[in-house]
Design goal:
Layout (H helix, E strand, L loop, with lengths): L23 E3 L5 E3 L1 E2 L10 H10 L12 H20 L7 E5 L2 H11 L5 E5 L4 H4 L7 E4 L5 H13 L7 E6 L11 H10 L3 E5 L11 H4 L3 E5 L10 E5 L2 H5 L10 E6 L5 E5 L13 H17 L1 H19 L5 E3 L12 E6 L4 H12 L1 E2 L1 E3 L4 H8 L16 E5 L6 H17 L5 E4 L2 E4 L2
Parallel strand pairs: 3-15, 5-6, 5-7, 7-8, 8-9
Antiparallel strand pairs: 1-2, 4-10, 9-10, 11-12, 13-14, 14-17, 16-17, 18-19
Helix pairs in contact: 1-9, 2-9, 5-6, 10-13, 11-13
Cofactor: pyridoxal 5'-phosphate
Keywords: Pyridoxal phosphate
Pfam family, one: Aminotran_5
Length: 446
């Protein structure tokens, strides 16, 4: 089926307004074109609604939790309301905590810091490095890449059945792959974890921008995600979930805001009483604008309606995949198979092409921004490509790295159509421009 013949469902919602939708970029072949941002999996453009909310608040910005003045009190109230908004967005339970962090990476490193010393950790090798790398000691069991959702559950069950049943255990899983976009069986994995007395944390960095995420419905113990993938700028993230390990551990950062009382002892040392609330792990001046932006994005997505957003994204996914399927030289990467449900993230390789060269040509000649390489998921790419990831090759030399296109609530039809057309033309006609290697990347020759 060609892109032009994919039927348009009249019930599909329009793209949500995002920043950058009117930005034009120069083409090496001459002229300019509206930029097609297809790298949502790295950082999604900010929703216009979020930017407007932040701009309206900016004149009232003040220190949080530390001032008696009006702006400080106003900002503190805004910050704590943002926490409640995020808790509602994530379906948090009454006794869950919402901790504001810098990112998913920061959230998972925080959780890694607070797990009990004798806790066993189980993580699939398919995880993004943010979820794969925080657990670096002999307590960690790395699980082989499954080739189906059922195999994922069976692999986890076998691993948990073989552990010491009396110590604590934690399972770390993704909700949607940042490489293939495939949805993982989170609810089933959570059931398997709990059946064996383990807890589970969900890396929702790629899931939360595309599907509703509820700790209650999925029955996970924690969830982590990043604002910059949820259409919110300013470098804020979230770790939400069970409070007990968070309360019992030493603070992730020591400093002001995390401490309830500090006093000198008779021996001259300092005695500290730490907060038991989320503030325990939010030392320093918090990123109130970032937290507010995340909450604004949560509200905007909820009000837009998940049914409509998911329906539109599936329409775009089908449109892209049907177009790429007509190009024999293109191989879309998948763990679970072509029929696996997925979000708007897909990676592919092109026969005879260097991935950096291909991505550079998409940008320079067609105004399309994608990502190429290994996507901070090296073990997964090794499995998908059937070989060890290669170091960047010179422009024009084929390489077994991948190209990733990703999109979401702000993507118009024209961007995905232009992408499919550009891929077809590059494969059949080649690049129109000359490229050279500069610091490991292909760039157009000036």
């Amino acid at each position: 089926m060609s892109v032009s013949t994919v039927a348009v469902d009249a019930s599909i919602c329009s793209p949500l307004p995002v920043l950058g939708r009117d930005v034009t970029v120069p083409l090496v072949t001459g002229g300019t074109i509206a930029y097609a941002a297809l790298d949502y999996a790295a950082s999604a453009p900010a929703l216009q609604r979020v930017w407007d909310d932040v701009a309206a608040y900016a004149p009232y910005y003040g220190s949080v939790h530390r001032g008696a003045g009006y702006l400080s009190q106003f900002s503190t109230d805004l910050f704590e309301k943002a926490r409640r908004t995020v808790a509602e967005f994530l379906g948090c339970r009454a006794d869950d905590q919402v901790v504001f962090t810098r990112s998913t990476t920061d959230s998972l490193n925080l959780l890694a810091r607070v797990v009990p010393a004798d806790c066993r950790v189980f993580v699939f090798e398919t995880e993004h490095h943010a979820a794969l790398l925080p657990w670096q000691d002999d307590r960690v069991t790395y699980l082989d890449a499954p080739r189906s959702p059922r195999q994922a559950v069976e692999t986890l069950e076998r691993a948990l059945a073989g552990r010491d049943p009396y110590g604590p255990a934690l399972v770390c899983v993704t909700g949607a792959s940042n490489v293939t976009g495939e949805l993982w069986p989170v609810r089933e994995l959570a059931a398997a974890a709990h059946a064996h007395g383990a807890r589970i944390v969900l890396d929702a960095a790629q899931l939360a921008p595309h599907h509703p995420v509820s700790l209650t419905d999925l029955d996970v113990d924690w969830v982590a995600f990043s604002g910059h993938k949820l259409y919110a700028p300013f470098g804020a993230g979230v770790l939400a979930g069970r409070a007990d390990w968070l309360r019992e551990a030493e603070p992730y950062l020591a400093g002001g805001g995390a401490s309830r009382r500090v006093a000198r002892r008779a021996d001259g040392r300092v005695e500290v009483e730490w907060h038991e609330s989320a503030a325990r792990h939010e030392a320093g001046s918090p990123n109130v604008i970032g937290a507010y932006a995340v909450a604004s994005a949560c509200t905007a997505l909820t009000e837009a309606g998940w049914d409509a957003l998911v329906t539109r994204e599936q329409y775009l996914i089908d449109r892209v995949r049907s177009g790429l399927a007509e190009i024999p030289q293109v191989r879309v990467l998948s763990l679970f198979g072509d029929d696996a449900p997925r979000v708007g993230v897909l990676s592919f390789v092109v026969d005879g092409w260097n991935s950096s060269h291909f991505a550079a040509a998409l940008s320079a000649e067609y105004g399309i921004g994608v990502r190429d390489g290994l996507f901070c998921a090296h073990p997964l790419l090794r499995t998908l490509l059937g070989t060890a990831p290669q170091t960047p090759a010179e422009c024009g030399a084929p390489s077994l790295n991948a190209i990733r296109a990703s999109f979401g609530a702000g993507t118009p039809d024209e961007h995905v159509d232009r992408f499919v057309t550009a891929v077809r033309r590059l494969v059949t006609e080649g690049a129109k421009w000359t490229y050279r290697t500069e610091e490991g990347r292909c760039v157009p020759v000036a």
